[in-house]
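Hi W., the NAP complex you wanted:
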Amino acid sequence: MERNQKVAMVTGANRGIGLEIVRQLAREGVLVVLTSRDEAKGQAARKRLGAEGLDVVYHQLDVTDLASVQRLRESLEVEYGRLDILVNNAGILLDNGIQVLDVDLDMVRETVETNVCGPLLLCQALTPLMEKNGYGRIVNVSSGMGQLSDMGSGNPAYRLSKTALNAVTVMVAAQAREGDILANCMCPGWVRTDMGGSAASRSVEQGADTAVWLATLPDDGPTGGFFRDRKPIPW
Ligand code: NAP
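Structure:
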């Protein structure tokens, strides 16, 4: 690890927007810990970046598994004694095309567990590592589907989870306001990934851009905000 090098951790980074966030941060000289719930998939992604000349570190992480989160925190403490950037990117969309009055509540619970409780648990577990060094950037990858100002009846579990993730972001930013931790959420737009599908309008490069910008904000940057294309958007 180089002196003054920032350490970042990205969840759900074996594919899609998460993998691209890792790529862009690594290109900026950040030491990135690429995590995935499936070790083989994550190691394959790490190798892919290695073939592009980008060295990143791998660690297993299932955001719904407390023991897995604790193992990661211990590893970060032992290896680096710090974490500067946390990107909560991992997410699931289980109820595509389902309407709110028809949705199975088990599907809602499972979605909230991954999309809300996972990021909250990681904020709880890892902000002490940021506070210790007086520096932190938290980026929660949300969605326009979580906007109350543009709420619809479809994909209710997913929408609810992203609205709640936005609330988590504002709360974490409020508690961290005293320190040097900036916490924001963002919408990547409609992106061509396994989740977004091939008809989506944006590339992963475009989808990752605002997350990387928020991950590398200067000290006088915003906190507690919701962004798309590097601009604030309504809640
Ligand atoms: P994706 O291609 O489906 O990738 C999702 C990633 O999350 C995968 O790596 C997946 O791992 C991981 N994941 C799911 N559950 C996990 C868990 N419990 N622990 C750790 N990792 C887990 O989706 P994407 O399009 O890149 O989406 C990334 C983020 O952007 C999500 O939060 C999504 O809601 C948000 N977003 C996407 C779009 C879009 O148009 N694509 C639009 C708005 C917001 P596996 O490979 O093991 O399944």
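The beta strands are 7-10, 31-36, 57-60, 85-88, 136-141, 181-186, 226-228, 231-232.

W.
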